[in-house]
Amino acid sequence: MTRPVVCVGETMALLVPAGALPLETAPHMSVTAAGAESNVACTLAGLGHAAAWVSAVGGDPFGRVVTRTVAERGVDVSGVRTDPDRPTGLFAKDPAPTGTTVHYYRSGSAASALGPDIADALPIREAATVHLSGVTPALSPTCDALAERLLTDRRLTVSFDVNHRARLWEPGRAAVRLLELARLADVVLVGRDEAEELWGTATASEVRALLPDVGCLVVKDAEHGATEFRGHRRAHVPSPAVEVVEPVGAGDAFAAGYLAGGLRGLDAVGRLRLGHLCAGRVLRTVGDLAAPPRAGQWDGVLEAPHERWVEQASALPAAACEGEEGTWGTDGKV
Ligand SMILES: Nc1ncnc2c1ncn2[C@@H]1O[C@H](COP(=O)(O)OP(=O)(O)O)[C@@H](O)[C@H]1O
Ligand SMILES: O=C(O)C(=O)C[C@H](O)[C@H](O)COP(=O)(O)O
């Protein structure tokens, strides 16, 4: 049996006004699912890897929509609990010409009541890798304890995407706590800009200096590229040129591509390239998710000589994003 990557964290029902109208005036909204960890699981499944999502939803229709949506993308949802006493979190996007604002209704949600006991759920015990993000410790003290429990379990290989969401943290708390937790992870993914905002580090090397003992650190720098630090080795892969339609979800897609590269036994350059290719698909769409590239499309690109990588990857066709209409990203991750 192939051991899955198990992604642990909250996914909310996402309300999206039809036609990108402001929430106040939109006559119709679509309901779908949004969550950092389930986004990673869906992209991994799309790439053909065993992926599971472990979380909790309320015993309400939103919870059923969320679970069904993730399951339809090929993810094992057998570790998702239903909490009859709490609601599923909600997340609404309010589009405006000046940028989209997001509204969270997740305080007291079923997932925010998750705690360390879920670490013994079956899919986690069977995991090849457990993936979680910095959203989880921000949700509640019990979720913070869950994150720490996973990150300190020596039997698990844990990947941690820092995913700083300032709005979810008490002022001043995020920088300290996210650094403590990141130091416990086997794999850490962080944006250069978010590291700068949190910790004042200007360069990837400065981030490495803060996290010297993390087995594998990846610092993403949007259109510039991504750098992997593993032991004393460092690898950098420039980002392909992408006409960005909407950036939200690219970080999650990158994480999935990068982890998939590891599962496929690719070297550092291959891992970072697959991360970029998956991120590029999401950047070209309005959704948080995009169908990952199909093997026949990227096999050659992954092996392109260094000087031809950017050119060949930039020339890949845009994603066909069937089923994702009605979701689009937002610049409002604060
Ligand atoms: N403008 C861009 N052009 C090309 N690739 C981009 C661009 N912005 C983001 N990416 C891709 O998305 C990945 C994640 O973006 P980044 O902004 O660094 O992280 P996050 O979304 O987590 O804040 C990058 O590593 C890169 O592959
Ligand atoms: O769970 C939350 O609080 C979220 O914010 C869900 C977000 O839609 C994704 O996690 C996108 O995040 P990026 O891939 O970093 O752009």
Word description of this protein:
β9 (158-161), α6 (173-182) and β10 (187-191) form a beta-alpha-beta unit. The protein is globular, with a radius of gyration of 18 Å. 49% of the residues are buried. The chain is built from 12 helices and 13 strands. The chain has a domain at 35-52 and 113-321: Ribokinase (UDP-N-acetylmuramoyl-L-alanine:D-glutamate ligase). The protein is an alpha/beta fold and 334 residues long. 35% of the residues lie in helices and 21% in strands. The protein has helices at 36-46, 61-72, 122-125, 135-139, 141-152, 173-182, 192-199, 204-210, 250-263, 268-283, 295-302, 306-314; strands at 5-8, 12-17, 29-34, 51-58, 80-83, 90-94, 101-105, 129-133, 158-161, 187-191, 216-221, 225-230, 233-238. α1 crosses α9 (250-263) and α9 runs antiparallel to α10. The strands form 2 sheets. A 9-stranded mixed β-sheet has the order 5-4-1-8-9-10-11-12-13, sandwiched between helices. The chain binds adenosine-5'-diphosphate (ADP) and 2-keto 3 deoxy 6 phospho gluconate. Residues 191, 194, 220-223, 226, 239, 242, 244, 247, 250-251, 254, 276, 279, 283 line the site of adenosine-5'-diphosphate.
